[in-house]
Amino acid sequence: MSNQSAHQHNAACLELFAKLSEYLDRELEPDTCKKIEQHLKECPPCRNCMQTLKRTVEFCKSMETKPVPSELSKRLRDMLEQLR
Ligand SMILES: [Zn+2]
Questions:
Q1: pLDDT per residue as tens digits for the range 7-66
Q2: How far apart are the CA of 28 and the centre of ligand 1, in A?
Q3: Cα angle, residue 77 at apex, residues 75 and 80 outer, rounded to 5°
């Protein structure tokens, strides 16, 4: 479907971003993961953000420090600002 307005698209992005950190930690139901993957396929900006976030999380893990949740949500908020 390609008749989504920018506003609806943003709402979908917001919903996705709220779940993205859980998605990366694989804490979500398979159904929810599929929904996110579907959105990422159709939404290049979200795909870029997800890859950046993924790299951040992997970097934190490779440094053997726990990802700081507040730092992560701050990043997510910055990315959302860019989408607006
Ligand atoms: Zn999106």
A1: 456 788 888 888 887 888 888 899 999 999 999 999 998 898 888 888 887 887 787 665
A2: 18
A3: 115
Q: Where are the domains of the chain?
A: 6-83
Residue 13 burial (C-beta neighbours within 10 Å; 0-12, 13-18, 19+): buried
Record the pTM. 0.59
Find out whether 83 and 45 touch, Cβ atoms under 8 Å. yes
Distance 76 CA to ligand 1 centre (A): 13
Q: How far is the CA of 15 from the centre of ligand 1 (A)?
A: 9
Residue 4 neighbours by CB distance under 10 Å:
13
Q: Name residues whose C-beta falls within 8 Å of residue 16's C-beta, 6 or more positions apart in sequence.
A: 36, 39, 40, 43, 46
